[in-house]
Amino acid sequence: MTKNPMIEEAKKARLKAYTPYSKFKVGAALKTVDGDIYHGCNIENAAYSMCNCAERTALFSAYAQGIHAFESLTVIADTDRPVSPCGACRQVISELCEADMPIVLANLNGDTFLTSPKELLPGAFLSDDLKEE
Ligand SMILES: O=c1ccn([C@H]2C[C@H](O)[C@@H](CO)O2)c(=O)[nH]1
Ligand SMILES: [Zn+2]
């Protein structure tokens, strides 16, 4: 079977994870509208609450290069079901990606699940909610 190139990119990103504490490696591959790919991996810290997930690393890496328009996000980990992004990432994804953008969740067994920001966090708190009357 032919390999999905974005899943292969997410696997490569996963190998860069810095996870001395959890030993749980996650990779993300974020495709821009221009076809470029930004890798993200989880980066942990001895101060555990400072750990950054793969999904946010990918989005923040792209933002740090001034890139704001994305086509898809693919996330992979060694999980039984396709990896499930945490609540913090769902919030950040909802703000930085179009509501309908394809998000592919995957695991190393070859299982995948296609979703989107609006499905991952229905009713997300967004910038419009901050507007005064
Ligand atoms: O979707 C997920 C879920 C978890 N993690 C990371 C955070 C932490 O480093 C480790 C264990 O929760 O996995 C991610 O990067 N993405
Ligand atoms: Zn997360």
From TrEMBL:
Zn(2+) binds at C53, C86, C89. This is Cytidine deaminase. The lineage of its organism: Bacteria, Bacillati, Bacillota, Bacilli, Bacillales. It comes from Pelagirhabdus alkalitolerans. The active site is at E55. GO terms for cellular component: cytosol. NCBIfam families: cyt_deam_tetra (TIGR01354), PRK05578.1 (NF004064). Gene3D superfamilies: Cytidine Deaminase, domain 2. GO terms for molecular function: cytidine deaminase activity; identical protein binding; zinc ion binding. Residues 1-128 form the CMP/dCMP-type deaminase domain. Its cofactor is Zn(2+).
